[in-house]
Amino acid sequence: MKLNEIADNPGARKSRMRIGRGIGSGKGKTGGRGGKGQTARAGVAIKGFEGGQMPLHRRLPKRGFNNIFALDLNEVNIGRVQAAVDKGALAPDAIVNVEALVNAGVLRRARDGVRLLGDGELKAALQFEVHGASKSAVAAVEKSGGSVKILAQKAQKDAGESGS
C-alpha cells in the first residue's frame, strides 16, 4: 500500500447539497424549508413553542433544588488505597490526604476533599486525614492499626451576612 493509494471507504464522504439552485436540483425554490411563514425565515427561535398553548416545560411542576453549599468530595475505597500501598505509590508511614492520593495516582484531581469508603481490605496501618469516612471504613482502618482524622468542613460564608 502506498500513500497515493489510500482512499476512504466508498460512501463515507457525502458531497454537500447545493440548495436553492433551481427546481431541477430537487432542493430549489423553498430550499428545503417548506412553505412560507416564520420557520422559512432566518432567526427562528421557537423550540418548545406550542402555538400559544402552555408549553410542556411550563406545565410540569418544578422539583428539587441545587444546594450551593454542598461539597463535591472524591470517594475512595480503602481497597484502592491498599493497592496504591502495595504498588509503592503510597508510603505506609506517610499521612494519607488529598494531595498524597493525587500524587499516588489514586485520584485524578483534588475536588473539595476526600470521603473514605469501606470496600476492600486494608493491611497497612495508615494515618488518614479526610473530610469524611463511612463507619465501615473507620472500623477497617482502626482494625489494621491506623487512624482516621476527620477534617473540619470549609467555613461557609453566612448567607444572611451584610456588607456594612
General description of the model:
With 164 residues, this protein is an alpha/beta fold. It has a domain at 74-150: Ribosomal Protein L15, Chain: K, domain 2, CATH 3.100.10. It is 18% helix and 12% strand. The strands form two sheets. Strands 1-3-5 form a three-stranded parallel sheet.
Write the SSE topology:
Elements lengths: L55 H4 L14 E4 H10 L7 E2 L1 H7 L9 E4 L9 E4 L1 E2 L1 H9 L3 E4 L14
Parallel strand pairs: 1-3, 2-4, 3-5, 4-6
What features would you highlight for this structure?
single chain; 164 residues; alpha/beta; Ribosomal Protein L15, Chain: K, domain 2; 3-stranded parallel sheet; 6 strands; 12% strand; elongated
The CATH architecture classification of the domain at 74-150 is Ribosomal Protein L15, Chain: K, domain 2
Named CATH topology of the domain at 74-150: Ribosomal Protein L15, Chain: K, domain 2
SS class: alpha/beta
Oligomer category: single chain
Which geometry do the CA atoms define?
Answer: elongated
Percent of residues in beta strands?
Answer: 5-15%
The topology string of helices and strands comes to: HEHEHEEEHE
- Report the total helices: 4
Helix content: 10-25%
Radius of gyration: 30 Å
In CATH, what is the class of the domain at 74-150?
Alpha Beta
Mean pLDDT comes to: 89
How do the strands line up in the largest sheet?
A: 1-3-5
Main pleated-sheet profile: 3 strands, parallel
Quantity of strands, as a count: 6
